[in-house]
Amino acid sequence: MGGTAIALSAVLASALIWSALPSFLLSAPHGDNVEQLNWSHALQWGYFKHPPFPTWLLWAAIQIFGPSAALTYSVAMACVAVALLLVWRCAYQLLEPRQALIALLVSTANYYLMGRGSFLNHNTVMLPFVALSAWAVLRIVRGGGWPMWLVLGLAQALGLLTKYQMGLIVFANAAALLSAGVHRRPGFGAHATLASAATVLPLIPHAIWLADHQFSTFEYAGHSLLADLDAARRLTACASFLGQQLARLAPALLALAIVVSTAWARRPSFALRATEGKPSPFALRATEGKPSPFALRATEGKPSPPALRATEGSTNAPAQAMRALTVLAVVPICCIVLLVLIAGVAPQNHWGASSTLLIPLLLVSRLRAYPRQSIVAAVAATALCHAGAIAWNVTVWRVNPGPHHVFASRTLAALAQRHWSLHESGPVRLVLGPDWEAGSIALYLDGYPAVVPNADWREAPWIDPDLMSRCGALVIARTGQPLERQLPDSLALSATDSTVLKAADMLGRESAVQAALIPPAPGRNCR
Length: 527
Prior knowledge:
Layout: H1 3-25, H2 31-39, H3 53-65, H4 69-92, H5 97-108, H6 122-141, H7 146-160, H8 166-179, H9 188-200, H10 204-212, H11 216-225, H12 231-265, H13 267-274, H14 281-286, H15 293-298, H16 305-311, H17 317-343, H18 352-355, H19 359-365, H20 375-399, H21 403-406, H22 409-423, E1 430-433, H23 435-442, E2 450-453, H24 466-471, E3 473-477, H25 489-494, E4 496-504, E5 510-518
C-alpha cells in the first residue's frame, strides 16, 4: 500500500471510529454539540457566545441529512479529518514522504483529535483553518506566489469567523513569515496587502452584527480574558494549563517514542547496509560537507519529490521552512502562557486544541538524524494509542460516567411529548429551559422544535416572541430547585401542569427533569 493510501486510510479510520463511538456511549450529545443544534435553526452573522461559522456548517449538514446527534459527531470529525490531511501536506513540504506519513500517523493520536474530536465546538472547527494557514505559510516560504497569500488570508478570515482565538494563529503566521525572511522578497508589500484584505473584508458583516447585538460574544470571551488573576493564581493556572496540554498530547508522544525506540532497536541493520558499497543516509549526515540524502537521490537519475521541493524559492528554503514550522508550532501556546503570566488571563484547557496541532509534526521533523523510522511501527504504535483511548472512554462510561453518558434524552423526549399531548392539541413548536437539557430533549421531539436556551431570548433573537403566544411552549427545568426559580417571573406565572419526568439509560442509570407547559394565548392559532 502506497503512502497516500495509508494516509487516507488512517484518517478515514480515525474519523469513522471516533464518530461512531459517541453514538454508542452517549445517551445525550456533548454540551457543545447541543449548543450548535440550538443555534442551527437560523443562519446569523453571529451567535450569543461565538462567531458563526461552526453553526453555518451544521446548518448546511442538517439541510442534507436532518438533525441528529450522530450528525454532530460526524461533522466534528470531518473537520478533524481535513485538518489531519492538511497537516500531512504541511509535513510533505518539509520531510521525505516516509517521515511525512509518520508525522500524520502520530498526529492522529493527539487526544484533541480523537477522544475530544467529536466535540462540535469552535475549537474543533477552527482546526482545518489553522492547518490550512500553516500550509499556505510554508508554501509562501518556499516561493509560493500571490495565490498562496490569498489562501492564507481566506483561511485566517474563516478561522476568525470560527473563533477569535484564531488571532493568535494570525500572529504566529506573521511571525513565521518574518522569521523566514519573506519580508525581504520583491512584492512582499503587495502580497501582504492582499492577505490582509482577504483576512479583514469577510469579517465586516460579523462586525456589523456585533455592533447590533451589544458585542455579546466579547462579553462571553471577557470572562476569561478579563479574569485578572493574582500572581499566585497565574502560576497555578499556567501550570495546570500546560499539564493538561501534555496529558492530551501524551498518546501522540507515546506513539512517537515507540517509533523511535523501534528504529533504534533496528539500528545495526542500517550500519550493515551502510558498509555494503552504498553509504547510508546517516553516514552521509555524519560526514560534514557531503550531500544530504535528498541531494544524493536527486543526482541518481530522477530527482525525488523532497529534492525538488528543496530547490523551490531560494537555496535556503528548507532551513527557512523549518524555522517557520518551529514558529508556527510554538508561538500560539507561548502566547497563551504569556497572556496568563502577564495579563492574568484565565486559560481554558480547550484553547490547546489549535495551539498544539503542529507540535507532533515539529517533533518528527527534529528526528531526521535518527535511524530510518518504520511505517509499520508507526501504524502499530498509533493503533495501540487509539485502542487505549477507546478503552479509556468505555471505562469512563461504565465506571465514572458524566451527565452526557446517563441523561436519557430520547426517552425523556418521548415522555415530554406525551405530557404535552395530554394537555395540548397542537405540535410542540418551542422549548424553553437550560441549554443542554432543553436542547437534548428538543432534538428528539416531533418536528425538531426551536429552543430558547436558558429561557433567555437574547440567546435566540431569531425566534419571534409571538411564537409562544400563538403556539405555547414546553418548559424543561432541572430537578435541583423549584421551577419558579429557573424561569423569569413572567414565564413562571404562565407555566402550568408541572411534573417530573424520569428515565433510565441502557445500564439502568436514572435521570430526571421537570416539565411544564405554557399554553397558547386564548384564541390564538398555531400555524
